Amino acid sequence: MSQTKASRYSDQGMRAVWAIEDNQAVVAWAQTRPGKFALLVLAFLALCTTEEWQEALFFVTAMGLFAYYPPWRSMVFFVSTYTVAFFFSTASIDDAISEVALTEGFVTWSPVALSYVALVVFSFLAWGLMAYARYDKQSLLTRRPVLTLLGIECLLCLLSYKGIFSGYARLALWSLLSVLTPYFWFLVYALVDQRSKDRNNDLFQLGTFHPAWGGSSSSPIGKGAAYLRKVFAKTPEELAITQIKAVKLLIWAKVISITRMLLTWLFVGHFHIPTVSDAMDASLQNHAYSLGMEWASLIWSVIAYSLKVAIYGHFAVGAGRLAGFRLPRLSWRPLESRTLIDYFNRFHYYFKELLVDFFFIPTFFSVFKKHPRLRLFFATFMAAGVGNALFHFMSEIEMLETMGLWCMVETYHSYLFYCFVLATGIGISQVRANAGYKPSASLWGRIQSFFVVWGFVTILHLFGDESRNHSLIERMHYLASMFGWF
Amino acid sequence: MENIRNQKIRDYLTETLKNQGDKQPLTDSDSLFVSGRLDSVSMMMLVVYLEDEFAVNFKAEDFEVTLIDSVDAIASLIASQVLA
């Protein structure tokens, strides 16, 4: 691996002390049988908790088989993905289905069983769509998979909405919608890959649909098969290095997880810092907490959320690296962000990549070619604003049943505002970066960058939670009161 | 002609890497983006540079990062568009 500057793959400075993957003796040992076994044991210990040791054991075994037995890879990938989906419930499809099952009178039907059937049906449909995309490379599905699938999603929403169909038909349509939505972006990546000459077989492609390491996140960690092919370790030495980094990252995730628990005990258990929602409620009911407590609540919420994303990301990426995929970290030193575009790149890398792949690039190559700054800003806005809003709106599709469409849109205003402001900030930052703007690298410059970036992120966080408990106006009023304006 | 073109590409990329604090040597086959050496901002700046300097015509549905992931890949892309 090339020795480049500190990146998502390598370490420098103080971290070089822990860079045992640079030690040739360790790398050589990691390629021996005892070494491989030790790495898997360490990974298991880092992954397991008392309640979920079986899942960790299954997972480590599957990733080990994938890494060490090339002829079995597609089958192992497929089986591990669907085993986790069926037995460890990575996607909460049954919650979404149960609402409609109850409404339509199917009270004795198991939502879990329904979700399994829906997942099987969806998988066959996805298989068929991939085959069609290969057959007709000029079809709308192949050339514009996002638009086509969005069309299907909208059609399913319309047909499964109350009053259009009822009974079995409505339940079937709703079940399909409930599966398509969390698997949407995985299917898009798979359809795009059907154009590649060196695409993986269908078993492998289906294995990328919520792979075992990715949890329930709708944004594909590791993107799709095309990306996984590029980043897979090419030599036994690279595999060993990748797996050493995997174990390190899993251990680091465990450390951050314990840190988060301790901080939660301290700030919530000991200092009784309220949630932002509770602080807002209190303010709206004229029983406001002190200004210090309100700011502490907001700052703690940002810290807790950032740690949650980092913990989840490190576990997922560490687990994927165990299989031999040289995956960049999901969250990479976000506190060192120098600009907003830098923050967007560092905070949730795979979500950013999804927005770049399916919103930024199509927009960038389509519009304002004669106006470079406008082109860059608009493409960034489409990604960080429109794509972001669409992604999160879709991720709560079950609210179509619990709230209805109008209420779902109405309570989304705050998050839309969040996306608009975030996208504008990131767009301006992108244009400035393109023009050569670089913040000062001095200590004072870095401190300034930290406060500008994280000040922006913290204030915007007030509008970015997806609780839908407070309107945009209420949040703005609360923010103004935090600055002493009310 | 080809050598001049490739040298222009190398000079541009070397400058871009240097601006990001990366002073490691660049070979023609080194991965730029898949390896993480350059980010998506740099990728878009490179796209704009190739459009302006070499009149490369990118289409959204055909774009893949591997098309511009190394000096060799960029040179092949430019050559294929010249021939077409």
Report on the structure:
The complex is a heterodimer of chains A (486) and B (84). Chain A has 486 residues and is mainly alpha-helical. Chain A has two domains: 23-41 and 48-234, no CATH class; 242-482, no CATH class. In chain A, 69% of the residues lie in helices and 0% in strands. Chain A contains 22 helices and no strands. Mean pLDDT of chain A is 90; it is low at 1-7. Chain B has a single domain, classed as Orthogonal Bundle (Non-ribosomal Peptide Synthetase Peptidyl Carrier Protein, Chain A), CATH 1.10.1200.10. Chain B is globular. Chain A binds chain B through residues 2-5, 7-9, 143-144, 226, 230-231, 328, 341, 345, 352-353, 356, 360-362, 364-366, 369, 372, 376, 379, 430, 433-434, 436, 438, and chain B through 19-22, 24, 30, 34-37, 39-41, 44-45, 47-48, 51, 58-61, 63-64, 66.
Q: Short description, anyone?
A:
The complex is a heterodimer of chains A (486) and B (84). Chain A has 486 residues and is mainly alpha-helical.
List the helices and strands and how they pair.
The complex is a heterodimer of chains A (about 475) and B (about 80).
Chain A: H1 24-30, H2 33-47, H3 53-68, H4 73-87, H5 93-103, H6 111-135, H7 140-143, H8 145-160, H9 167-193, H10 202-207, H11 225-231, H12 236-270, H13 276-284, H14 291-322, H15 340-347, H16 349-364, H17 372-394, H18 399-402, H19 405-410, H20 413-434, H21 443-464, H22 472-482
Chain B: H1 2-19, H2 40-54, H3 71-83
Helix pairs in contact in B: 1-3
Question: Which characteristics define this entry?
Answer:
heterodimer; A: about 475 residues; mainly alpha; about 70% helix; disordered N terminus; B: about 80 residues; Non-ribosomal Peptide Synthetase Peptidyl Carrier Protein, Chain A; about 0% strand
